[in-house]
Amino acid sequence: MNFMGYVRPDGKVGARNHVAVIPSVICANDVAQAIVGQVQGTVGFFHHQGCCQLPPDLKRVTDTLIGLGCSPNVGAALIVSLGCEGTDHERMLKTIVKTGKPVKIIRIQELGGASRAIQAGIDAAQELVGQISGLQREPSDLSNVVMAIKCGASDTTSGMASNCVVGYVADKMVDLGATVVFGETTEFIGAEHILARRAANKQVADKIYEIVERMETRAKSLGCDMRKGQPTPGNIAGGLSSIEEKSLGAIVKSGSKPIQGVLEYPEMVTTQKGLWIKDSPGREPEILTGMACTGAQFMMFSTGRGAPQGFPSMPVIKICGNPNTFDRMSHDMDLNAGLIIKGEKTIEQVGEEAFQKVLCVLNGEMTKNEAIKYFNSIDIHTLGPVI
Amino acid sequence: MSLQLALKINDRDNVATIFANGIVLGSEVEVRDKQGKSEKVKVLGDVPFGHKIALKDIHPGEEIFKYGEEIGVATKEIKRGEHVHVHNLDSMRGRGDLKGEAVK
Fold first, then answer.
1. Coil, strand, or helix at residue A236?
2. CA of A248 to nearest chain B CA: how many angstroms apart?
3. N or C, fewer C-beta in 10 Å, chain A?
């Protein structure tokens, strides 16, 4: 089955054709924002990392920004460097250039400060937009697609309606040869034995237990009960009583296919097919970044309480399991799985609607959050302290 | 008042989730399972949309099951029909406060 996508020089196929403006460090955000505000066809990744962090985190931030630049929805990239940051902006440039896409870099300190950098950045971004904005979509097989999955602001309808629909679409995408990636390791806690049973082999099962133990140890490190951190106060108000209950509902969104392996947070999908896990936290700004740098062209995002945000370069399809929330927030929700809770539709019926929506979005239809640019608060998940 | 529905997901479950608004003390809900069997339960207190009630009496320390899996342990005596939530259910995971005794 085909969708209409932008074929990149490295063979990947995008569902969007953005010029990505990538600050290599938080200190370059204001310049990057000014460029994005002025130049049509650009999106910016305004994260908060990139300096005064331990070397493994600096590498992680560099790798993540490289992943965002290499992702197929990005047609060209402009790196905005301060000049003295801890991330490796030269490696960013060299690696993204290897995709064959046009890439430029500006350095704020070298150019003589913010206003000069903004001017140079606008000129550079304008040129990049000129180079890629005339690209035409071409028929491309769905096996080129990486689908990301996430649930956020969940309640008890998530595990019984919207996550079931996402699982239905995930299974269908795997059958069509695509790659599907889910994450939120925190929300495996209490359900890891079920995921491990679905592992393709023993190594993958062991790895699932390992990442859950790593995440739980981190959660316990402050010596308190993690409840209120996970599940969140909103989850609790929605009826979820424990992380175990939240996890058992959350894993439903991964469908029923065998789990092929575990990707680290900044890892990109290269040749992997089928269903994969990305080791990641549950919080939106960090996991959405992790999924976009995987190379996902879109995300299906299930919610019950009503999580509205998306991601700059990756369309996020919101599917709401709670009929009350859908009625209140229909301008933020793309699909209504609340009709399952009301008994008016089946999981399969909403699943087919969701699959049609996926095809439309891959072909260019904007999601609700994309249309109103509700996607700027993003971040990169790091492990160590800021020093 | 019209009958309100609650769902029991797995045969092993000792709680059901109510997907109805306006459930108050004395409301009667019809709990349905996957096989289509149903039982009526009188609700002992106000229960918000999407929250759980006990399907049988649950004693302190007893495991609470949903999806056929353990979601926590009762901290108090819970009567059939009572709201089951953070006030009478403890999570057994991510418990940094339990100093290494955390039940895996």
1. helix
2. 7
3. C
In a domain, B103, yes or no: no
Cis? peptide before A233, omega within 30° of 0: no
Q: Which of B51, B70, B86 sits opposite A244 (nearest CB)?
A: B70
Cβ of residue B20 closer than 8 Å to a chain A Cβ: no
Return d(Cα A166, Cα A253) in angstroms, integer. Answer: 5
> What is the rounded distance in angstroms from the CA atom of residue A307 to the CA atom of residue A319?
10
In whole angstroms, what is the distance from residue A356 CA to residue B7 CA? 29
pTM metric for this prediction: 0.95
Tell me how many residue pairs between chain A and chain B have CB atoms under 8 A apart. 102
**Nearest-neighbour CA in chain A from B95: distance (Å):** 4
**B75 interfaces chain A, CB cutoff of 8 Å:** no
Q: How far is A217 from chain B, CA to nearest CA, in Å?
A: 8
Interchain contact A325–B (C-beta under 8 A):
no
List the domain range (segments joined by +) for residue B68.
Answer: 4-98
Q: Which residues contact A111 (CB under 8 A, 6 or more apart)?
A: A117, A120
C-beta neighbour count of A371 within 10 angstroms: 12
**Touching B: A residues 234-293, CB under 8 Å:** 236-239, 241-245, 248-249
Tokens of A228: 């209120």
Mean per-residue pLDDT of chain A: 97
Tell me the C-alpha distance between A251 and A257, whole Å: 12
Instruction: Judge: B90–A249 Cβ closer than 8 Å, yes or no.
Output: no
Q: Say whether the ipTM exceeds 0.85.
A: yes
Domain with residue B27: its CATH number is 2.30.130.110
User: Would residue B104 count as lying in a domain?
Assistant: no
Q: B46 lies in a domain?
A: yes
* HSE toward the beta carbon, residue A249, CA cutoff 13 A: 32
Closest residue, chain A, to B99 (C-alpha): A223
pLDDT tens digits for B1-32? 556 889 999 999 999 999 999 999 999 999 99
In angstroms, what separates the C-alpha of B85 from chain A's closest C-alpha? Answer: 5
Nearest CA-CA partner of A16 in A333, A387, A263, A371: A371
Question: Residue A179's closest CA among A40, A90, A91, A297?
Answer: A297
Burial of A222 from C-beta contacts in 10 A (0-12 / 13-18 / 19+): exposed
The structural domain count of chain B equals 1
Residue of A163, A187, A220, A344 to mutate, interface with B, max B Cβ within 10 Å: A220
pLDDT > 90: what percent of chain A?
Answer: 96
What does CATH list as the number for A18-132? 3.40.50.261
